[in-house]
Amino acid sequence: SRANTSEQMGLDDGAFLDRLMHQEGGKILLVDDMRSNAERVSKQVRGKFELFLENDPQLALRRCTDENFDCVLVNLSMRTFDALRLCAQMRSLETTRMLPILVLADESEQARIMRALDLGVNDYIRQPVDRNELLARMNTQVLRKRYTDALRESVQHTMELAIMDGLTKLYNRRYMTSHLNSLLVAAQEKQKPMSVLLLDIDFFKSVNDTYGHDAGDEVLREFSQRMRQNTRGIDLVCRYGGEEFVVVMPDTDHSLAMVVAERIRKKVAEKPFIIHKGRQMIDVTVSIGLASTLNGEESQDVMLKKADQALYNAKKEGRNRVVS
Ligand code: GH3
Ligand code: MG
Ligand code: MG
Ligand code: MG
Fold it and tell me: How far does the centroid of ligand 1 lie from the alpha carbon of residue 268, in Å?
């Protein structure tokens, strides 16, 4: 649903925002230890918002983390615990930092209202509560939450599109080539080795021809998954082109890179790829060209050319092998 929301949030799609803002209701958590008060609020929002009640601050925090509330309503004059402390905790926790907080306050609580606002509470309502005012203020918070959520998703999605390959969720070629040179420079400065693998799936055209293009796509996804599982977090795994991939391995000399490349090659060849929801099994192999830094002064172009030449030899020598 995230991608869906983001797509709908396209910059020129004002209609999506319109729909977003006119959605009714919202899921509200009321934190209150006074039953009678809670019942009054509940009656006032009935039919407009979905209201849940929690009378323990720790449980309230947990629920705000686990459930997707649109707004929290906190009664500032609770007797059994400090509402301000709860507000402070909500603002400091990563999971509740962005959740709108609305406080209910008595006439006499001006100083505490100020402190609550200081802590980052979004708004307050005086008790006894006027129903229309309560609904209006809650609605404002719910809409703001929805808007910022959608905006954040959209920004994240845009950033992902810029650096990731859509099919495999690996880094894309542009991202890799914009980092490889500086990684090589950093390796040289620290006098660390560095290796690059260029991988090309064998006879991939015949996978498409035999099982169809969608099957080919599934193979590419599963292949990417196996590469990810057999590399480290600091390795840069990217889709270089159609069925060609590059793994950039910092701090990795030729012999270690050989071990990694062999492991990937084996993990691809040893188990058939299961596609079409288990209805089809395809044997896949990969050829891998390996290039490692020698004097530490190799440029990106030199490294990729070396890997490409090695890959060419791997194909020529019969495929399903690693050549350096
Ligand atoms: P070789 O062992 O020499 O590498 O043989 P090959 O068939 O893998 O080589 P070739 O480069 O001739 O074919 C690559 C094929 O990959 C051709 C193209 O249709 C297919 N391909 C490229 N991108 C995609 C994609 O995103 N999805 C699918 N399904 N196929 C793709
Ligand atoms: Mg190819
Ligand atoms: Mg080819
Ligand atoms: Mg190929």
Answer: 16
Which pTM does this prediction carry? 0.70
Q: What pLDDT, in 10s, does the model give residues 69-82?
A: 999 999 999 999 99
- Asked if 181 and 204 count as a contact pair (C-beta separation under 8 A), the reply is no
Give distance in angstroms: CA of 245 to centre of ligand 3.
12
Based on the number of CB atoms within 10 Å of its own CB, is 163 exposed (0-12), middle (13-18) or buried (19 or more)? middle
Per the CB < 8 A criterion, the answer to whether 195 and 324 are in contact is no
Of 169, 208, 213, 320, which is best to mutate to test ligand 1, by the most ligand atoms within 8 angstroms of its C-beta?
Answer: 208
Nearest CA to ligand 1 atom 25: 242
Tokens 């660390």 label which residue?
Answer: 192
Residue 320, ligand 1, Cβ within 6 A: no
Ligand 1 atom closest to 241 (CA): 23
Contact (Cβ atoms closer than 8 angstroms) between residue 80 and residue 89:
no
pLDDT of res. 11:
46
Q: Please write the tens of the pLDDT for every residue from 5-49.
A: 444 444 445 666 566 556 678 999 999 999 999 999 999 999 999
* 276-282 contacts at long range (C-beta below 8 A, 24 or more positions apart): 276/211, 276/215, 276/218, 280/211, 280/215, 282/207, 282/211, 282/215, 282/219
| Residue 288 and residue 312 in contact, taking contact as beta carbons nearer than 8 Å | no
Report the atom number in ligand 1 closest to the C-alpha of 204: 8
Pairwise CA distance, residues 317 & 306, whole Å:
16
Identify residue 315 by its one-letter amino acid code. Answer: K
Q: Is the CB of 216 under 6 A from ligand 1?
A: yes
